[in-house]
Write a structure and sequence with these properties.
Strand content: under 5%
Number of helices: 6
Shape: globular
Largest sheet: 2 strands, antiparallel
Strand order of the largest sheet: 1-2
Number of strands: 2
Helix content: 40-55%
Distance between the termini: 38 Å
Structural class: mainly alpha
Number of domains: 1
C-alpha cells in the first residue's frame, strides 16, 4: 500500500492544523490552468481555474467526476478509496487535523500537484486519491470554514 509521503517539515497554521511545508514544491494554483489544460487535453485544470475565480464549487465536483469516469470507476468506489487517505492522514497528523482550518489555496495547490503527478504516471504515492482528497477538503473548507477562503473569488458560491 502506498502511504502519504512525509519529508518531516511542517507548516502549523494559527488554527492548529498541520501540513507538510510547501516551499520548493511550486505553486500550481497560481499557474494559467486553462492554458495548460488545453495543452494537456484535460478539462480538469480548466474546471479548477474557473473555480478559483468564481467560487462555484460544483466545478470541483466536475473535476473529480472527470478523473473518476476516466478511470472507469464510480463515485462510491472512489470515495471509499479516499477514506484510506483520511485514515493515513489521521495517523500522520492526528484525527480531523484537516478540519481545524487550512487555507483553501493550499488544498487547490496540492490537489493540482497531485493531479499533474497522476497524469505523469508517478507511483510514489496514490496521486489520484490525494487529488480527490484535496479537492473534497477544498469544498468542505469553502462551505464550513469560510475564514480560510483565500482565493480570488469575491463571494463564495451559494446554492
Amino acid at each position: 500500500m502506498r502511504v502519504i509521503l512525509d519529508n518531516g517539515d511542517r507548516t502549523i497554521y494559527e488554527t492548529g492544523a498541520t501540513r507538510d511545508i510547501q516551499l520548493g514544491k511550486g505553486r500550481c494554483d497560481l499557474m494559467p490552468l486553462s492554458v495548460i489544460g488545453d495543452r494537456l487535453d484535460t478539462p480538469v485544470l480548466e474546471y479548477i481555474e474557473k473555480y478559483i475565480f468564481n467560487g462555484d464549487y460544483r466545478l470541483l465536483w466536475d473535476a473529480i467526476d472527470f478523473v473518476i469516469e476516466e478511470e472507469g470507476e464510480d463515485i462510491v468506489t472512489a470515495i471509499l478509496d479516499v477514506s484510506i487517505h483520511f485514515e493515513q492522514g489521521a495517523f500522520k497528523y492526528g484525527e480531523r487535523n484537516w478540519e481545524k482550518g487550512i487555507p483553501l489555496h493550499s488544498y487547490i495547490d496540492s490537489g493540482l500537484r497531485h493531479y499533474l503527478k497522476y497524469l505523469r504516471g508517478d507511483t510514489d504515492e496514490n496521486h489520484k486519491r490525494a487529488f480527490i482528497w484535496n479537492i473534497l477538503c477544498a469544498i468542505h473548507t469553502q462551505i464550513y470554514i469560510p475564514d480560510m477562503v483565500d482565493l480570488p473569488f469575491k463571494e463564495p458560491f451559494k446554492e
